[in-house]
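Chains adopt folds. We examine one example:
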Amino acid sequence: MFVSEKEVEIRYAETDQMGVVYHANYLIWMEIGRTSLIKDLGFTYAGLEAEGYLSPVIDLSIQYKAAMTYGQTAKVRTWIETHGKLRTVYGYEILHEDGTVAATATSEHVLVKKDSFRPVSLKKIDPIWDAKYMEIRRVQD
């Protein structure tokens, strides 16, 4: 299983009045992790968009384990949990610098045509990218 890792410095603006990272910022970090994973594999999400495709989130699950605060550095670990004909599930771990798990999550995506929002298979538009996801997915058939 291939895991991409990306560090994110926690900014003051990402915290609430208690000095704890506001929960919605984890979603932004997940997007950073997903984009980093795609880049690490040699592909670009911007390239998909330029070709007329989008990959909207259709489901999201996140479990908060240990609060993070301003001044810390979060490590975002991202991988392909499952990948099928139309859906891809990304897995995430967000860690403290000492390795303590701050949050775990998954996000499920479909690939759609930008103009119609009709689902399309990644295998149809980029068979090499699809094959890579099939190769590295955590859950095999």
The beta strands are 4-9, 53-54, 57-64, 73-83, 87-95, 101-110, 112-113. The first helix runs from residue 25 to 40. Helices lie at 25-40, 45-50, 122-125, 127-136. Residues 4-136 form a domain with the Thiol Ester Dehydrase; Chain A fold (CATH 3.10.129.10).
